[in-house]
Fold these 3 entries.
Entry 1:
Amino acid sequence: MKKLVPVLFIALLIIGCQPLSDNTSKNNPGKNETSLTDTTPRVTGIGGIFFGTENPKELKEWYGKQLGLAIDAYGSPFEFRNANRPDEINYLMWSPAKTGTNYFKPSEKEFMINYRVYNIEGLVRKLRANGVTIVDSIDTYDYGKFIHIMDPAGYKIELWEPVDSVFTVIGGVTTK
């Protein structure tokens, strides 16, 4: 029995040093971590929150004073790091708009989420094939590609394939 204990200990140590099962994100990209070579069209995060209010200027000032948001002409750009590329700075825009603006049309709701996406063209093909209402066509700017869709609840959704480096070069205040 005394000789069996060290053998069992060594066996457990060897088993404990083996890679984990196939349920780990390393062996299953997309479960908890996205592979850098994965080209699947998808949402990768939130790019912005837009909503209507009677007095956007006053509300931006309140959020800046009371909650410490860094305010610019459009609202508050939030800065964060990319989980897969930590050296890369990404951005999210919080932005109140004047109630009654056409910005949220054709939705009757004055609220819109902007989703950061990967492979916007492929995602639009998938959405169109699935019968999703596409509001407009892809617009391309230095800072990324945009398109709008409608969700089943009647909200206008903005999809954005970002080029964050443009905002990094421009600089300016950000909420961190």
Entry 2:
Amino acid sequence: MSESRERVHIEDSPKRVQTYFGGKLIADTKRLKLVWEGPYYPTYYFPREDVRMELLTANGHAQHTPSRGDAHYFAIKVGDREAKDAAWHYPESPVEELRNLIRFDWNAMDGWFEEDSPGQEETNRTGDAGRALPHALSRPRSLRSRERSARP
């Protein structure tokens, strides 16, 4: 499925993606959306149902973008660690497909992991406008991890 509105393009991802903060799994999905928000690489958006919302707290911060609407921000708190404005969503976005998705600040999270869906063949497909997407993997791959204990 793909939807465009001005400079926003959305595609389904075939990969399972997980993100960690403070040694806890914050989000884990096989229904990831890749969202191009301009002439950049895609960003990961997780379905709200696949996010541990009990670890996110709305902080009242909002920011408007013409193409996506008002972003409402969350802090993530695990134990004594907290990351302010580490996640956000667009509950009233003009792009309907974004309304129930959560985006995380890449650098605020301790670890990112992706892996293939079962039975997926290795590919090197090209996304919108010729943007190359990463090779599919046969086992989990750490995209970025600050803490060795971030994933059990």
Entry 3:
Amino acid sequence: MLRADLEEAPPAPAPLNAPEQSVDEVETNMLSDFTQRMAARGTESNVRDAAQEYVDSVKSNVQVEQSGPSIVYVAGQAALLLLLLVGDVPVVGGAIETLLGPGLVVAGIAAIGKGVLDLGAGNLTPFAAPVEGNELKTTGAFSYVRHPIYGGLLVAATGLSVATESFQRLLVVFLLYLLLDAKSLYEEKELERIHPAYRAYKQVTPKFFPSFDELDEILD
């Protein structure tokens, strides 16, 4: 019975053969492949030619005679980029780090203290809204900046960030600046409502940090 079933089973289908390509199709495909390879070589050649042209142009430009100041600027630029890569400033690096670290902390605390004293206990409040009976202050620390306490806080915070080499603290200082800027805008709207003279005072007095001329006057 098994033998009969095997004899009656249909033959397996013949495998399908891929259609044969004509000679013209083969030649067309070969020509297309050759064209693509030549185009790729042409692109590589164009890139090499363009790069060589840039190199030759730079060499030619560098060889042009330059004035003294132009050479000094380029040399200074190269030196600063090198120091940036090295991450250290020889000879004066320690002094700069001290000045921008502990120095700024001390300067900021001093500005905060001066601002608190000049503002007076009657005006002092942590809130953005001025106290009732607020007195307009335009002398002392307030003759240099409108918000010496906020400015001192930002300076001290920056110094602490530099002294501790903390990028995260610098990021917090930036966020603190944004917050204090928004808070001071609210305060100044209220102060303009209470003191009409505040508008004129605001136009001639910086917000957080004194100008270079005023800073020179403070240091003197």
